[in-house]
Amino acid sequence: MNIYLLKDVEKVGMAGNIVKVSDGFAQNFLIPRKLGVAVTEQNKSFYENKITKVKVQEKIINSKIEMLAERINNLHLTIKEKVHDDGKLYGSVGPEEIIALLKEKDITVTKKQIEFVKTVKAVGDHKVIIKLSSKLKPELTLKVVAE
Hints:
Blueprint: E1 2-5, E2 18-20, H1 23-30, E3 36-38, H2 44-73, E4 76-81, E5 88-93, H3 95-104, E6 114-116, E7 120-122, E8 124-130, E9 139-146
Parallel strand pairs: 4-9
Antiparallel strand pairs: 1-2, 1-3, 5-7, 6-8, 8-9
């Protein structure tokens, strides 16, 4: 039986795809849990059109993410922090400060997307990774200077 998946199902397929599964699996598991819809000859063209629309939208989104990744790769951000006499910060630079600096450049990211290569506790240049997707992880340079 062919099933159009409404949600991602592990070891079966991703949402928005038509997959072939056994009749029992479809009728006893996928359809009752609203994970998929049976594809018949009457509604086959509807779901195929839906798949093409989703693929077009994914291409548009991926191109926008790639353009954002290029902008982030070329970024050099500077932040002023209070430091001890030996050049170490009183605290450390966190994701909130990075979000604020990126917002000034019209780039919006969440806290979960920011990954530090090493904790930023000293003056100097540091690498920060912005996780846009599982494949796109551009790096930006953060320069910490004494206030």
